[in-house]
Amino acid sequence: MRSLCVSVMSVAVSLLACAAEEAAGQPKEGPEPKVDTWLLDFKPLDIKPIVVERASGRGRLDWYLVYAVTNRDGEPRPFEITISAESDKGVKYSDSSMPETERAVERALGEDLFGTIDREKHFPLAEQKKALDEIRALQGDAQIEAFRKYLERKRITIKPKETKRCIATFGALDREADFVKIYVRNLTGTIVIKEKEGAKVLEEHVLVLEYRIPGDEFGQSQDRFEYVGRQWIKVEREVAPAAKK
Predict the structure, then answer these.
(1) Backbone torsions φ then ψ of 28, nearest 5 degrees
(2) DSSP classification of residue 118
(3) Beta strands of the chain (E only): which ranges?
């Protein structure tokens, strides 16, 4: 009888161990943020490196993210998502204008994707930089008001119930990276302005996606990105106080 009990206990322990291992390997999904305005649905679709032929004839290994954004509301919403990333080695990336990479991915997937090429047609990067530099030069309430007006300009929108398939391009991949986090901003209209230690602070909701990069620096073109999970974080930015007259 004792041997039977031991056997049953051993099986139970083994099953619990297997369940724990499976749970540990599952992606970690954080809760959606509590917002008092709209919230766009973000879904990553494809993330990997791609060899891009340059005009010089030499190839370069860039990495990209294809994603889908859906407006589940009954009203059109601003579509001004900004995406950046950072590896576990501290290398930072931003979704920047890389027409060759964008077109190479579109050819590989056989579809048109919304990316920096489309955004630049609507609002050239030089004009964006000038407008944002002017805002940064302001202080206090004047800076907040200028930023609001910047957001209220003629903008790209996403229609009610519409889904846009898009691409973010990041350039060369860090060969020593084991993990990478992707930060997605402007998925919600909820930005909180609050006082903190006598200063005004803007608080926004940012979606963070995390991926593991298996393999080594010798086989990056074959690498795959393994999805680890997602979570929402709050990011604060202090507004410079108004200059005293």
Answers:
(1) -95, 115
(2) H
(3) 28-29, 41-53, 59-70, 77-78, 82-87, 92-94, 157-158, 163-172, 179-185, 191-196, 199-212, 226-239
What's the pLDDT tens digit per position in 38-64?
899 999 999 988 888 877 777 888 899
User: How is residue 162 written in tokens?
Assistant: 């519409």
User: What's the pTM value of the predicted model, to 2 decimals?
Assistant: 0.75
- Residue 82: exposure state from Cβ atoms within 10 A (0-12, 13-18, ≥19): middle
> What percent of the residues of the chain are helix, what percent strand, and what percent coil, each to the nearest 5?
30, 40, 35
Question: Rounded distance, CA 28 to CA 229, Å?
Answer: 4
In the sheet with 163-172, reading across from the earlier edge strand, the strands are: 41-53, 59-70, 163-172
pLDDT digits (tens, 9 = 90+) for 135-179: 888 887 888 788 777 766 667 899 999 999 999 999 888 888 899
